[in-house]
């Protein structure tokens, strides 16, 4: 008897974490429906990378242009006019990279998509390194959002964040064990041809590769 | 000493309930920041009515065009190709007027707007008549969404649905007691010059006026 593959909606940014999660879900036998959001990040490079990966894997990929919501959430370096700090993540420079209510907004759309497709699971790649910095990556947030997703529609949806208690290095270790090619992921906050190697996102990525004893296959301006 | 007015974000559809809530909040001394969403309802009439009211009251009104999210939520009569049923609301014809995860999506955007403005309260006009039909109007949903809004951002937001235990007639009674002119609200699901008087939304509105012993000041095709 044939059984159909389980299905999952995945918020797929094009970054390392959701790239790893995409491949893990596929390795577990899921048919994955990735959705990417353009919410006014100052470049579309990570979305291009995400689209290339989905095309190569022949996945039905939704790229949703949310720039029309900018008048509501425009107090942020990622979506506004301020410069992105070229430094490590820290509470001081975190505040200006914070998009108001970002994860609740993106998750509610992904959950709506799951309801629309009759899919019962919605995944995203929040991880423990985000907890201290972003309130909407904390376990309490994910638990409450999951409870809400169970009762907000005629059909319950389960919200799953399997990296919630892993750090960036541990996620990378899992992906390297799967043999993933991380040149197919994008992390840098700058939108240039090559990753800058200087912004907080690049520094965190390079640090994770160093801790895993691997060289990042991505090309950097500073290499 | 001068004290500044308390502020509130309000999801303002242009319909009777949010029209009543807008005026109640103003009567309570709130500076109101109304936000309306165009999410692919098949006409923009209610948004025009909402914009006129805000212009008249000199309120800063955000109208956010969410039509780009349609590929995620397109299984619905309100946003898709099916006809709206010309009958009373009932579970049978409800399913096709249901937009997947609508309230979670709209509330998460309104909460983001509140965070962005530094406002601690976000209002919407869910009422008891919706409970049986729409899962995302039930008290459990509102309570959980409020808990989530308290912890999803660096700044807590309180979600308030003061009509949650009132029916349409009771809301109308409150608005009539305030002397509101309901010709400035729009309810009909059809997008024509005059309200149809036939769709489930018109029928419910006319029923509420009849129960209050008032004549609806809105013009109807069937009058």
Automatic annotation (TrEMBL), chains A, B:
Cofactor: Zn(2+)
SUPFAM superfamilies: Adenine nucleotide alpha hydrolases-like
Residues binding Zn(2+), per UniProt: 188, 196, 199, 202
UniProt: ATP binding residues: 12-22
Keyword annotations: ATP-binding, Ligase, Metal-binding, Nucleotide-binding, Queuosine biosynthesis, Zinc
Enzyme Commission designation: 6.3.4.20
Catalytic activity reported: 7-carboxy-7-carbaguanine + NH4(+) + 2 ATP = 7-cyano-7-carbaguanine + 2 AMP + 2 diphosphate + 2 H(+)
Protein's UniProt keywords contain Oxidoreductase: no
Co-factor remark: Binds 1 zinc ion per subunit.
Gene3D superfamilies (UniProt xref): HUPs (3.40.50.620)
Gene Ontology MF, one: ligase activity
Pathway(s) this gene product operates in, as recorded in its UniProt entry: Purine metabolism; 7-cyano-7-deazaguanine biosynthesis
Coiled coil residues, start to end: none
CDD domains referenced in this protein's UniProt entry, alphabetically: QueC-like (cd01995)
Signal sequence annotation: none
Protein family (similarity comment): Belongs to the QueC family.
Function: Catalyzes the ATP-dependent conversion of 7-carboxy-7-deazaguanine (CDG) to 7-cyano-7-deazaguanine (preQ(0)).
Xref: PANTHER family: 7-CYANO-7-DEAZAGUANINE SYNTHASE (PTHR42914:SF1)
Stated name of the protein: 7-cyano-7-deazaguanine synthase
């Amino acid at each position: 008897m044939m059984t159909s593959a389980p299905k999952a909606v995945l918020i797929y940014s094009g970054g390392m974490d959701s790239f790893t999660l995409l491949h893990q879900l596929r390795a577990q036998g899921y048919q994955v429906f990735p959705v990417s959001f353009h919410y006014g990040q100052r470049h579309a490079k990570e979305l291009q990378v995400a689209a290339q990966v989905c095309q190569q894997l022949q996945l039905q990929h939704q790229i949703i242009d949310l720039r029309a919501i900018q008048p509501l959430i425009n107090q942020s370096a990622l979506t506004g006019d301020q410069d992105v700090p070229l430094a490590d993540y820290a509470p001081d420079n975190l505040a200006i990279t914070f998009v108001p209510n970002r994860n609740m907004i993106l998750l509610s759309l992904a959950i709506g998509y799951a309801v629309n497709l009759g899919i019962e699971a919605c995944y995203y790649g929040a991880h423990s390194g985000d907890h201290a910095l972003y309130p909407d990556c904390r376990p309490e947030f994910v638990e409450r959002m999951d409870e809400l997703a169970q009762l907000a529609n005629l059909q319950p949806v389960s919200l799953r964040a399997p990296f919630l208690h892993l750090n960036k290095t541990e996620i990378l270790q899992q992906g390297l064990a799967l043999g993933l090619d991380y040149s197919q992921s994008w992390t840098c906050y700058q939108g240039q041809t090559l990753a800058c190697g200087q912004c907080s996102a690049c520094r965190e990525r390079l640090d994770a590769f160093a801790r895993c004893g691997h060289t990042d296959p991505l090309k950097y301006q500073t290499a």
